[in-house]
Here is the input.
Amino acid sequence: MHLAETQISLWFPWPDAMCGASAMTGDSDFRIRPGRIRSTRALWDPSYTDESWIKDRVELIPRLLRRGYVDAQAGDPQPTFPAERPRVRIDYICLSAPLAPALRWCRPWITEETAAASDHLPVLAEIDL
Here is the structure.
């Protein structure tokens, strides 16, 4: 059996005029963080219009689900961002419909090391093959 791993990374730029800081300063700049936290709604909220230069609805997760993918954390969704005190869920594992019944569990990997390694927590899943 061949397995393929896909990671989708999104970067929501915040121009200087919107936040008073360079978009390249990253999430550690507290002037940018409120907008970045709000922008995560673009992943799952079909009514949210992105505040950045995108100025449109992104709807990434709803689009994947409409195409038949299954949210591996649908039964117990947990926040993953910001890592030190997660409040919103921005990390997902989506499975194809044929693979979904093989899912055993899915959850964020929460340790001191994972919280320090990134601004959001990794998500792990165990799948029986």
